[in-house]
Amino acid sequence: MSKARSPSLKIQAIPLQASADFAKEEGADSISAAIMPVLPMVSTPAFKPAQGLKCCITLNLAFFFDGTGNNVDADVGTFEHSNVARLFRAHHKDDMATGVYRFYIPGLGTYFKDIGDNGGGTLGLAFGGGGRKRLNWAKDQFKTVVGHTQEEITEIRVSLFGFSRGAALARAFALILDKLCPDGLYKLPNGKDAPLTIYFMGLFDTVASVGLPAGSGVATALAASDATSAKWAAYEKSLVSRRDNHSNGLAKLAFGEPGADPSPTWADGHMEWASDLRIPRSGLVAHCVHMVAAHEQRHSFPSDSVRVGQHYPGNCIEMVYPGMHSDVGGGYRPGEEGKSLEQKEILGQIPLLAMYQLAMEKGVPLMSMEELKVIRVDKDFDVSPDFLKAYSNYQAKISNSTLGRTVLSHMYYYFLWRFFRIKNSRAAQLKTNEDQEVKFKKNHEELGKKVGDLEEKYKQANKKARKASGAVQNQRNMQTRAGGEVDPQLLQDEAQAKDELEIAKDNWLKEKAKLDSLPSIGKTGVSLPMYDRLLVQETEQIIKLAQPGKKLRPHYQGLLKAWKDAQDGKGLDEKKDAELIGFFDSYMHDSLAGFATDLTLPSDPRCIYVGGDDEAMYAGLISTIQASAA
After folding, report:
1. How do strand 303-304 and strand 33-40 relate by DSSP bridges?
2. Where are the stretches annotated Disordered (predicted)?
3. pLDDT of res. 457
4. Rounded distance, CA 617 to CA 309, Å?
5. Which residues of the chain fall below pLDDT 50?
6. At what angle do helices 385-395 and 578-587 cross, to 10 degrees?
């Protein structure tokens, strides 16, 4: 990458048809585009604030809602900060003179001092708790800036970014702003109206999962980092049981009517603030970009497309990028699962760069690469030339059509690689993963000790503060009867003790947030071989279940085609397909193996919502299969 240029990408727009997948497509619109980064090519101009009269100002407010478990302060030191965090760091800092402001909202389940969220709890991580407080905080920041601006506000321009549940929060916040200005006008404190526009929304793989997520109906508990062999055996047994279940097992999912749903329960993760995630009207939202993870499968991470039924809103563009949830939104640490040993080889860098360019083109006040270099943030956007070449070679194989068909194209090559790797061993990856986990374990131990020490200091500070408050209260009780006043020294001691307590608590929770974000140890080495075994078993079971004339859903047809190609010598060749194999080997994570918590099967399709609780029918019927053809 040229040091003299911004990390802009030449963009190739390929239609991502907006029709319903595997349904009648006559009359369907095709207004969306799959945008594929190819090479760093052109420089994007740096942001220049509008020059107006000194008495007038245009406000530019950017809100960055990070993903579940993602927190820039905790993650940046180990280079596992998300794409939302990287874009936040690239945004110009607050400047009253130019009216530019940025606001960062830590991910659900992480430490957020301003709203009293200590982070690390199940409520936020598993059920999306704390979302409403984050939305209220963002609304308060918006109102505070607008209310304290001295100049006459001629326009309010808002940009929103989000990843995972943070993307869901960004969408919910857009609807809050929509309600605040139903006619596109925001009522200022002085009684005047100012036009408000959400001129850009940049979303990475929206996942709501608020309340009971889609996977909750089939969830199971597993102690991830310290699970015994007996627990793993029990977990595998529960997966086999789900595979053979009459309501959501393979016999039900692989065959039947359109709409395979691996978690057929009433739970959909659209509770409370996530009950409405539609993108507001184009009069308010000018441009919305949504990037979907092609290879994510977990029940607990269903995606909410910006598509509504068969059509995309005119202000929305949706793209499908290779990788798992955090391969698109960022958040993997270099070396996690033995993949992407350097930051510049992380798969999420590609959608990050594309979003950076698209946001810059729409006027978001992001710094140029030259400006980022000065503050040493340019490394956030580094991409290895070898990695970029491997990515481009992979994308050249993918067919882009409707959302569902594009996902299926990605999944076919993924299954093809899985069967190749199962046949030819994962030893190299497992060894690399083991080597990386040695480093991670050391980090765990060092940080764990530090967190323990800080927690003890917090406890001591808490005792001191309680003692000081007790002394004040005791004297206040005595002086109330005697008609006197509390000793000023006691009040001063109490105030100082409370300040020390607040500092001790903040120091402890900041370091604890870092500990909470570290990769798990010992899970991948066990879960990967387990899921490989299950994938083979599930494929063989589908073949046995297949009968002449029996309809097979397209997701499973792709799975069987990959299996058959591998068995017939038409699969991946170690020499001929070295680049494709290397792409998956080196850069593609396995979120299912890293999660290993719910009852998602390695053969399951992902649930994609296309408006409310309606699911995309991309796993609908496509053809028939003869038993002999399997």
Report:
1. unpaired
2. 463-483
3. 92
4. 10
5. 1-42, 124, 217-225, 621-630
6. 120
